[in-house]
Amino acid sequence: MPDHPNDLSIAVEPHPDYRDANVVIQGLIDFNAAHAGGAAPCELLVTLRDADGKVVGGLSGDTWVGWLQVHALWLAYELRERGMGRALMLAAEREAVRRGCTQAFLETLSFQALGFYEKLGYTVFSRLDGFPPDGARYALRKVLEPGATN
Questions:
Q1: Is 121 left (phi over 0), alpha (psi -120 to 50) or beta?
Q2: C-alpha distances in Å from residue 70, one per residue of 19, 73, 86, 110
Q3: 3-class DSSP assignment, residue 109
Q4: Exposure check for the chain: N or C terminus, fewer CB within 10 A?
């Protein structure tokens, strides 16, 4: 590490290298682990694949300190409203419970899937109006109970 602030530079990266982004993310993970008894997030990926093995939907998140955090849930357009999103969410919740989680957290935008998550038992605890313009960003949570995520 440089000893003097003049040896440092700040740059906005026009074409970010994922490896540099990972240095930042890993630094935060390590910092958080030092303050959470050594616990680090455990990645969670649930995929939906077609007959050829191509990913046509999935859920990305992690589990950490008793929480499931859903980062992204996506389905190919033609597969929506067929119960696949629900199946992905329930698979993630079951795995989170298996990992010892008792709570779940996610965010969604007003044009995405607020009603879908509410039907799955998630409740809004925060609404940020104007994100995106003329819309809102919601934060939701759910208590996970063993055996209840089926």
A1: left
A2: 23, 7, 13, 17
A3: strand
A4: N
